[in-house]
Structure formats: structure tokens, C-alpha cells
Amino acid sequence: MKESRIKVIVYGLGPIGISTAKILAQRKGIEILGAVEIAEDKVGKDLSDLIGISKEKGIPVSKNLGEAKKYGTADVVVHTTASFLEKVFPQLEEVISGGMNCVSSTEELFFPIRGAPEMTRKIDELAKKHGVTVVGTGVNPGFVMDTLPLFLTGVCERVDEVHIQRRVDASKRRLPLQQKVGATLDAEEFYKRVEAGTFGHIGLRESLQYLAVNLGFELDGIEEKVDPVISEKDISTEYFLVRKGQVAGIKHIARGFVNGKSVLSLDLRMYVGAEKSFDRITIGGNPSLEIEIKKGTPGDIATASILANSVTLAMHADPGLINTKCPLWPHYEKL
Amino acid sequence: MKESRIKVIVYGLGPIGISTAKILAQRKGIEILGAVEIAEDKVGKDLSDLIGISKEKGIPVSKNLGEAKKYGTADVVVHTTASFLEKVFPQLEEVISGGMNCVSSTEELFFPIRGAPEMTRKIDELAKKHGVTVVGTGVNPGFVMDTLPLFLTGVCERVDEVHIQRRVDASKRRLPLQQKVGATLDAEEFYKRVEAGTFGHIGLRESLQYLAVNLGFELDGIEEKVDPVISEKDISTEYFLVRKGQVAGIKHIARGFVNGKSVLSLDLRMYVGAEKSFDRITIGGNPSLEIEIKKGTPGDIATASILANSVTLAMHADPGLINTKCPLWPHYEKL
Predict the structure, then answer these.
(1) CA A81 to CA A18: how far, in whole Å?
(2) What is the SS3 assignment for A134?
(3) Contacts across the A-B interface (CB distance below 8 Å)
(4) Is the separation of the CB atoms in B266 and B226 below 8 Å?
(5) Residue ranges per domain, chain B?
(6) Are the C-beta atoms of residues B314 and B79 closer than 8 Å to each other?
């Protein structure tokens, strides 16, 4: 049986893009046509060398999508360039206008209708016009704090509140992540960076809004807080030493309120020296449920996997911008 | 905003049908048009009296669907009459031919393509012909041992094996369930009933096949075993005393093998005196995941809830027989 394979262009070759490309290169049903990356040290190289898989020989890394398309039009573009919608908007426009479905790790794209309704509508309309599907996904946003909790509420008659905790021991993660959570900073410097807007987990607000909308919660307020987790002892990682009193990582909490009560809370703590990693989802309702993912959902590989797995979704779903939304719950709002 | 409500007929008024009707009666977007039940002590009664909710006054229980349809054609029939596909097949035909979507608790309907391919195709074709959707769902099959594990694999690059345990302390459940699991029998009588085919959890095989197909596992064998859990002490429930040495309940295990290795196992134990109820899902792959639902998913309310929640799904999904299937994983087989 020789079925035609799904043709993919990989757009963005940072750590997540590389991981996703590795997975895709090993899937029988997928053919990688091209790769795009702006970093000059990667342009012109062979993708096979970057991902360490020889199967896909002969795919030079292009410096933009137009160049990559010379090798053919893809069915799906797997896009992993940046976190903010405004930044990737022109890239998405180019992908969609080229008639290609898009799976993106852009955090703000997961559920942008509340935060950026104008851009959301533009993307949705453009996608419908070109008959393609746009999916924003990842492990968080995209799974632990939104689609998984919502899926779980499928067995609830009534949902009063949902609280989610994610604890990630950053000690075992790659250097950029340890730096990203602020390890070794002092608290003052940490708060300066928070104020500058360069700190905090992107997409937490989108996860919260996704839950609120899909659960039919009319929030009268959202509160978001980013604080440092201060190390209580000296901790050595592979890369550096975090001293007692220094910042070990980040505590980012988003809450949604109805009548002054916190009915939604998303509590994310990523820091060096966390005693254990876990994800915990508590649903208050009928029935109430408490779910724990022991050791947590490993961030990098889970994001690369859900991106790779969503290629099929992008091929089969109706045109438009979708929210990897579970259709079981009756209160969902149409875009 | 006065939107038209979804019109529902409730077909089957056993405990699950009653629970589901109660939920539906309280949903603003749903109007219960009629109810069907063959039990003579219920026919002619008012549904409101049976479900204890006065809102839906004036819905007499009909003895068959034809009679119920005099009150109008429903958008969705919520069907909870029996567990076996062969038995409900004529009922489903009548619902579908009447142009109504169907949400059913029939366990074998959850994923019947492997066990009953002919009937499956007939239902699917008839549903497509009449432009309606047929959904088989519930907590098990329908959630704990199939759709939830599959949803979780959405963050896995590779899945090698999935093992699921469900432990239910039957002491706190209603009398029919305690009887259904064989409490107070002796082991000999238990096995006689197993041989007579009147014992065991219905749908376990369907859950296993659903996982195998959706994960792309080509099983070379399925093994199913039903054994008694023997009580190690005297245990009193609300209804009777289970003596030490008597049957406390049931242990039903289904396994799927690839190259002689058990890559799928569904281990269900429901018995009086279980120390704790829980659901546990272990996924071996990359990444591996271990998930626990503390105290487990409560069976009756969860089934009624997922049936009620699936009314929306039945209204919006494409025509045909669907499997409440998660579209994230790339290996799924089309019907």
C-alpha cells in the first residue's frame, strides 16, 4: 500500500523545532519537504545534519518560507518561531495564503480570541478563505492546563471550579530553561525583569480563558502574578550553582474570578531544586475529580510530540483557526 | 437571546436513564420532549415524577418510540436500554431512520467495528443516509479505559504500551451493582455464571480494540479473563454481609499482545471491601506517563454526565457512527 505521504515544511529550528523535525522524520506517513530558519549559522545547512537523522538527506535549510517553497508546497507547516502572536502574525499570513495548513507552538495562538480578537478573526477568516486549518498547541498551553482539564470535565454534570498545579524541577532541564526561569538572579533583578515584561510563562492567560469560555464561566476578573521562588539552600545544577537566598525559579499564578471567588487557578512553578515534578488537576463539581500526573508531563518532548501528532489533526479538521478543543462539554462558544 | 433549545427524547428509564434525564432537565439549552420505557410500572407516568424535577411537567412515559414521537421529533435521542449491540440494533435503526441523532450507553456500541463489523457498517451507513450522528459513550467504555488514555498519548512521540487499572469499592454502590459483581456467591457459582456468559464487564474488549486501532497496534491476540475476588474477611454493606471466603466481587482483565508481549492491559476490579477506589493509567513510550485519578471516576454519575454532555457532540459532529475519538494521534483507522 503506497499512500501519499503528508508533506511538511518545518518553520523554525530552535530546540522545539529540531525535536519536532526529528519525530516527523521518523514517521512513515510524513515527508519533510523543507526547513526554514533565520539563524545564519543554520541557513544552507542540511536538515539531516541538524537533526541527526540521515533519512532526510538533501533538505537545505532556507532563510525564509518563499525559498523553502521552491522545493514544493507543503500540506502542513510546523511552525515554532516565537511565542507572541503579533510577532508571528505575518509568518502565519504567509503560510495560510500559501494554502498550507499550520501547526504552531506560538503560545498566544492557542486561544487568542479574548486577548487578540482582531488578529484571531483575521487568521480564522484567511484560513477559511484558503481552506486550511491553523492549530496552536503544545504542552502548556495546549495540554496540561487547558485541553486535558477540559477533557476530564466531560464526565462532570456540573463544574464549579478547576484548579491546576504544575511543578517542574528545572535542575534537569536544559540551560536556556534554567536561565529563563531566572535561576541565580536576586529577587530585585527578578522583579525588574518581570516589570520589563521579559519574564513569566507565556500562554497562561490563554489557558485560563480557554477554560473559562469552554466551561461557560463568565469571569468578572483575571489576576496574574509572577514571583520568584527563593532557594532555601545551595543547589548545584549541571550548569551553575544557585545559592541560598538567590532566585531558584519562577512562580506564575493566574486566577479567574466569578463573584469574587477564584473558580479557576493555574499555578505554575518551575525552579531549580523542586522536590518533585508533578501536574495536578482538581475539579470541583459533580462529580469532583482529582488527577495527578506523577513526575509531571515532560515539557520539551511533550511539546514536540503534540506538535508532530497535530499534523494529522490539521489535515482532517475543518478549515479555520481551531483550539484543539474537546467537543464534549456543552457550553463552548463558537469563534 | 432566545435560541431554540435542543429537543431530546429519553429512551430507557433505568437508573442511568433517570440520572441522565435529571441532568438534561436542568440544562437551559435542552428541552425534554418525551420518554420511552418498557417497564409497565413506569409507562403512562409523568417523567417529572420519576426524576423528581417539576420543571418538565407533562411528559408522559411512552411504551415505545413511535408513541413518544407523537409529542414531536427530537434532535437527539438519549438511549440507555441495554448493553449488547444485537439487542439494541432494531432500536437504533428506529431512532436513526426517524432522522434523530443518538447518544447511547450501549457498551458494545462504543467501538463495535472489530466485534461486529457488519452491524457497525449498517449503523454507520444508515446514519449517514439520514444525516445523523450516533455516539456510544459512558464512563467505561467511553472514558477511563479508552478515550482518556488515548487523549493522554497525544503528548507522546511514541507509545509502546498502555496499562490501565480501575479499582471500584462496590460497598458504596447501589444494590444492583453489588449483585452484578457477584458479592456473596461462592467461587463455584461465580464461575458457572461466567461460563453462562452472564458475568463480566461489558465493553472491556471494545475499549481494548479502540486503543489498539487508534495506537496502530497490530495485535496478534486478545486474552480476557474473569475471576472472582474472594473476601479475606467478613464485610457488611448496606444490603448484606459478605463472609470471609465468599466472593466479594469481580476481577476482569483484558490483554492485547504484540509478538507475545502484553502491550495493552485493562484491569478492572469491582468488589466489596476494596481498600480504595482509583483509576491508574500507565503509558510506556516517549515520554512515559503515569496518571492517577484519586478515588477513581464515580461510575453512575460520570456515565450519566458524559451521556448528557454528548448531546452537543451528537448535534455538531459529522453524520455517521463515531467513537468519541481523539484526533490527535496519527495512526487512527477510518471506519
Answers:
(1) 11
(2) strand
(3) 115
(4) no
(5) 6-139+302-322, 147-295
(6) no
How many residues can be counted in chain A?
335
Contact A290 B293 (CB under 8 A): yes
Inter-residue contact A154 to A328 (CB < 8 Å): yes
Instruction: Tell me the CATH class for B6-139+302-322.
Output: alpha beta
Contact B328 A329 (CB under 8 A): no
In B, minimum Cα distance to A283 occurs at B293
H helix intervals, A80-223? 85-97, 117-130, 147-152, 175-180, 187-195, 204-215
The fold adopted by the segment(s) A6-138+302-322 is Rossmann fold (3.40.50)
Residue length of chain B: 335
Pairing of strands B261-271, B158-169: parallel
- Cβ atoms of B319 and B133 within 8 Å: the answer is yes
Interface touch B155/A286, C-beta < 8 Å: no
Chain B residue with the nearest C-alpha to that of A308: B157
In whole angstroms, how large is the CA radius of gyration of chain A?
Answer: 20
> What residues in A contact B298, CB-CB < 8 Å?
287
Q: Look up the ipTM and state it.
A: 0.94
In order along its 335 residues, chain A shows pLDDT tens digits of 445 889 999 999 999 999 999 999 999 889 999 999 999 999 999 999 999 987 656 899 999 999 988 888 899 999 999 999 999 999 999 999 999 999 999 999 999 988 999 999 999 999 999 999 999 999 999 999 999 999 999 999 999 999 999 999 998 887 888 888 999 999 999 999 999 887 888 999 999 999 998 898 999 999 999 999 999 999 998 888 999 999 999 999 999 999 999 999 999 999 999 889 999 999 999 999 999 999 999 988 999 999 999 998 898 888 999 874 444 444 443 33
pLDDT range class, residue B313, cuts 50, 70, 90: confident
Model confidence, pTM: 0.94
A151: part of which helix (H) or strand (E)? helix A147-152
CATH of span A147-296: 3.30.360
C-alpha cell at A266: 493555574
Secondary structure class of A83 (helix, strand, coil): coil
Helix (H, G, I), strand (E, B) or coil at A224: strand
What is residue B66's three-state secondary structure? helix
For B:7-36, CB contacts with A below 8 A are 23, 27, 29
Show the CA angle centred on residue B150, arms to residues B145 and B155, nearest 5°: 140
CA distance B152 to chain A (A): 8
CATH match of B147-295 with 1.20.120:
no
